[in-house]
Request: fold
Amino acid sequence: MWSHRVAPGRMVFRTPHRLTITITRTRRSPEGDINDVLIKTLAEAHANTNHKLEIVHEMFRKPQDVSRLLYYKNMTQEELWLDCAEKLTAMIQQIIEFAKLIPGFMRLSQDDQILLLKTGSFELAIVRMSRLMDLSTNSVLYGDIMLPQEAFYTSDSFEMKLVACIFETAKSITELKLTETELALYQSLVLLWPERNGVRGNTEIQRLFNMSMSAIRQEIEANHAPLKGDVTVLDTLLNKIPTFRELDEAIGPASVTDSNTSNGNNTFIIIIQNDGGVGEGPV
Reply:
């Protein structure tokens, strides 16, 4: 057998029986390599800031604790919202840690980091809620208990409608059956959405957004067929972003204030320290 190169990246082998075998080496584009690095980095960031999916699914199968379910159903409206705010605060802290691991995020201006987190954290909380949804029972993993949608209802019709919209949005993401990696990429995409009001340094944010868009497109095209006609899973995910905006605006005032505090104002903002640390604090 002998061989020779006929073109860069191509090798031709000829066997004693005059059989010719041609092997062509294909080079990946730089964009594909960047996508692979971003996909791996965000998948790890997502895994390190969420409960393992195996634990979540184990909780789905756990027998319902009726006494604890009644405990939540018997909460007053104020008690329920305070408890939800506490759970949301814990989730947002994990979202902040996730954001810090997005390549390029910590190089944005401090003002842009704060604004993106302040306006995007609740949106990412809905995305994360989707992986905690059990569609067969219409319930969500709330701490260490599965609670049905009705457990979050109050006598306030606006709040009932808000809860229903949050559940419907989260369920619609769950129904797309995204992988954990795709959820990670989607969170990055939502957080870096460059059209938020007041964002400075749009060029850099747009660049980071474009990188996330390229990576999630590569991942979804490899894993999902179009849903209907030319409508893709990515199209559907992008179309949900305006709904996130609406829910964020609706819940905003209720989620940051508590009129029962001593000074009547328990508003929290996201703080990014001078040393790069991100946290929360009262104002």
Q: What stands out?
A: Confidence is low (pLDDT under 50) at residues 2-7, 253-277, 279-283. The longest helix spans residues 77-100. The longest strand covers residues 2-7.
